[in-house]
Amino acid sequence: MSIILGLKAVPRVAAAMTAVLSNGKANYVAETKNLSHTGLCLRSKETFPVGTQLHIVFGQPPELPRLSTQGIVRWSEGGKALGVEFTFISPHDQRVLLRFVNSQSPDEQD
User: 3-103 architecture in CATH?
Assistant: First the structure.
């Protein structure tokens, strides 16, 4: 699966790691399904409406150190999965994430 930004496809890679989500009211634990340098897909039992702002901490050291990002829910399959686009990630964390994504095989099944 790819996200289309304008006319450019953004490669995604399969990645199963724990993510902690916060919507300012509570914290939730989810698992990443795949990710790119622009966002991620999460398996979550929690339902977040499209447009929900989230703080997300994820990573799997040593391959991918813990990263802290802000994002917005772009799509949701109520209580199964959701897609989050990053709205803020520090330049350092962006470089680390891009290096990780580029080192992995593309996710062909999504």
Answer: Beta Barrel (2.40)
Q: What is the pTM of this model?
A: 0.84
Cα–Cα distance between 103 and 31 in angstroms, integer? 20
Give per-residue pLDDT as tens, 55-66.
999 998 888 999
Domain residue ranges in the chain: 3-103
